[in-house]
Amino acid sequence: MDYSPKKVSYRRGGGGGRGRSGQEGSSSRGRGSQGENIRGKRGQLSFRGRGDVKEKISSDDQEKEHSKNIHDDSKQDKPSSHDISSKSTIPTDLECLKIEEPDVAPVICRGKLITVDEPNFKSYRLRTNDELTIGKDLPIITNVYNFKVKENLYVDLFSVHFLNSDKQINEKFKNSRKRAVVMKVLADADNKFDLDNFVYDDSNLLYVLSGIMKNQKYEFIIDQNAKVINYVRFEKAKSLLIKLTNNDNISHFESKTFLNLMLTQFAKNPYNENYNKKCTGIGNQLFFKPSEAYSNKVSLDFLRQIWPGLCFSISLGPRGLPILNINQNYALFPKSDLTAIDFYCEANGVKVNTLKLENLSMNQIQRQRMTNLLKGLNLSVDYNKSREFTVYNVIDKIPSKTMIEIEGEKMTVNDYYKKRYNINLKYPNLPLIQMNPEQAKIYIPMELVKISEKPQKLKQKLEGHLIAKMVQNCTKLPEKKFSEINNYLKDIKKDGDIILRKFGTDIGNQIKTTGKILPTIKVRQPVDEKKRSIYDNKLKNFTYGIVFVNNPINPKARGNYIGKINHIINNVRKYGCGFNSNVAPLYDCNFNSRDNLHEVLKCRLEKLNDADKKNHLIIFIIRDGCTSYGLIKMYCEQKEFLGCHSQVLKSKTLEKVNVSNPRCRVTLNISMKINGKLGGLSKDLYYEDNNQKLIDFKKKFFNEKDATIYIGADVIHPSPHDSGQNFIPSISAVVGSMDILGFKYAISGRVHTTTVKQNKQAMETLQYFQEQIHERIISFKNATGVVPKHIVVFRDGVADSQFKITMDYEVYSIHKVCESINKNYKPTITFLVVQKRHGVRFFDPKQSIDKFFNGNVPPNTVISKDIVNPELLDFYVIPHKGALGTSKPCHVYALYDDWKLTLDEISLLTCWMANICTRCTDPIGIPTPCYYADLACTRLKHHYIEKKELLKKMKSQSKITIDIHPSMVNEQFFV
């Protein structure tokens, strides 16, 4: 299904430009457009793409082509009730709006889109002479380094194929074997290749210094002595010039990927004398093996330990020169000296030295627990160190009684190991471990199995208490973090010097820069009654009830909890939410997860009409480990069910509420959250400074006569584990402001019918973005009585590699929505991408006697030079206060902006929007619309999972929907 737009180039006032692509810290490869637009006659577009194919297209003809193809997915799906092409969905007052024409009408030129991977050129918002002119200077040390790459560095790119005996591609060849196989055949080849000339991605790509491998194809036998002969083949794909540019093309990605991998290649050579002794290389990361003396300190549990590491990410910096970000990270690795007997003891909850294992066995529960512990680990055996295994199951068979047939002779497993390997088993009654694949029937006695000596990074999810333990081990203040990075870097420069010099590269000095501390944003709570009156008018006659979930507690404790909730409700009233003067709950009842929650609640609310339900809040008290959260939210918020607000509180959180302390932080945060959830204004933001720029800023962005709608957008994709019956599709959420001040938001969510992927990476485009934006604009108009003249989008989670296609599709979608509302409706659009997954960190090196100073930069610090893109307008901002560890900045790109905002204005807006979150008094780390979109995606995922489970229990074949109840559709229920 092609739901993408046709190729489009917008030019609205600003000039054109090209943007970089590439995802920081990732070795994935993407594709982008290599075309360029040449401005022709008005209303026409000349497009030059790959192969210099030229075409001249009338914009009128392309308009027809767009109208035919923009809703391709509607051919397979039922039409939406919010189909923006249908005029029946547009309110008459909006359709007849008299909207002033802008001084310069935008010219929209449309070209033809051939594939979703090749969006047309679009004008980025470029960095011209943009500089911050507001705020105080702050000297800052970064974890970004200068990086040198010699000119005219060419590498040959070979594809790597692992073949079976018939020389067909072997899809089942183990990934854990690939590195050793490739390096061995290259080292043993007749040419005796120098392995320092190779960079391998441990999968299917091999980069070779140009001229080393002269043939187009090489083929080697993996093991001459093996029973079954397998092969590895290298085929030359291209010669690649290593050059970072600001173009969206594949050469930039391949250059970036190569350089990131090259930096860790020294740790991936099995023929290196220090291989896996000091550190191990995985992709663009290095992990350092803890010393014996330090091993216990980094131990997470009996199985796992925490390894510190470094992650390398090359990008294009100022003046078009490459820069290198080196960040400290951590990962879990299994302890290499563990045997399967250790897992047996863990599964049984005992210690090895307390057991006499000769006469012990395992029951089904213990075997399953041990299987779960071993799943996903590479295992080895001493009698054949060349092989590795993964567990299929710990089976209900023991060596002394299990018969096998070898070359026509039947014998027990005991006898086989005695005859073949001269091994006398010590524990013949312990279960056998069956290895993958199942059909091979590989049974190995437990006492012979151990964890592979090769380091292996674990990807298992941790339990809550282990997460806390890991966070405690990994949290470091900036000074210590930067010191450790530089200490590791000294070793890397020494150990990797040969490869760095081979490829003409060098890691330079750490970059120091100057940031700007923007004016402090003050918070006033509660908000003045006059200022919040427009919000309070809608918050009348609220009621609430209490439900205790799986929580059998004594009457005294129950009464204590109810008293604390009454105290919280009284605090909510101070923020303006109109609960009845009698703050007692309408009911308090119990719910057992075996019961039907819908029926339990339905009977409690049957006396309330729809309006009363909308103004009813159910507070659920749960314990740690409760799994009913998603079920609660689905029944309260989904279309088919109740349509009321809910607040889930853990009993341990309630215990922290201090009714005698009027400034109890827990009470304040819960009260703010509930007030915001119900639609109230929880805080007032202001500047103490009377700077005219700050006055102009507030007047420009929060002006009823020149209104702005703030949009947050995000999409979550299925993980590799979400397959089969556990499959969860991509789910997107678009939140839009419902007030002039940008404090209240409502959601438009969709389940995607298709997850488009670029290589292995899911595309970030929102399939139903047009419908979602349409709903948000209409809701804003209905809530405020004015039409937004400016649309500011905070787009979450877009990697550099997908900038162009996301901007092309989503900005175009906004234009189409506005056109469908009224042909003269042309609001300005500012499209900001907010990235959180990057490794850039900052350190304030000043000496301070302030006991609260920890080396983190102050809130509202913006860095807009020395480590940013040379052409695109981007900057780093830390809007929050870093109390623990090192503050993580958000990276903001202004990809598209026909409002022509200044860097000052975009920076001020980003910091301001980080302060409006209704869940806490302090600012958060990203603009709130992004955060709310993320929360909304997670909430809708809960809805989907619970709805799917409900339909399964009902044996229903109905389509899984996540439609929100009409009473909740314009409410901020998801915060």
UniProtKB/TrEMBL annotation:
<feature type="compositionally biased region" description="Low complexity">
    <location>
        <begin position="23"/>
        <end position="36"/>
    </location>
</feature>
<dbReference type="GO" id="GO:0003723">
    <property type="term" value="F:RNA binding"/>
</dbReference>
<dbReference type="InterPro" id="IPR003100">
    <property type="entry name" value="PAZ_dom"/>
</dbReference>
<dbReference type="InterPro" id="IPR003165">
    <property type="entry name" value="Piwi"/>
</dbReference>
<dbReference type="InterPro" id="IPR036085">
    <property type="entry name" value="PAZ_dom_sf"/>
</dbReference>
<feature type="domain" description="Piwi">
    <location>
        <begin position="646"/>
        <end position="945"/>
    </location>
</feature>
<feature type="compositionally biased region" description="Basic and acidic residues">
    <location>
        <begin position="49"/>
        <end position="85"/>
    </location>
</feature>
<feature type="domain" description="PAZ">
    <location>
        <begin position="351"/>
        <end position="453"/>
    </location>
</feature>
<dbReference type="Pfam" id="PF02171">
    <property type="entry name" value="Piwi"/>
</dbReference>
<protein>
    <submittedName>
        <fullName>Protein argonaute-2</fullName>
    </submittedName>
</protein>
<feature type="compositionally biased region" description="Gly residues">
    <location>
        <begin position="12"/>
        <end position="22"/>
    </location>
</feature>
<feature type="region of interest" description="Disordered">
    <location>
        <begin position="1"/>
        <end position="88"/>
    </location>
</feature>
<dbReference type="InterPro" id="IPR012337">
    <property type="entry name" value="RNaseH-like_sf"/>
</dbReference>
<comment type="similarity">
    <text>Belongs to the argonaute family.</text>
</comment>
<dbReference type="InterPro" id="IPR036397">
    <property type="entry name" value="RNaseH_sf"/>
</dbReference>
<dbReference type="Pfam" id="PF02170">
    <property type="entry name" value="PAZ"/>
</dbReference>
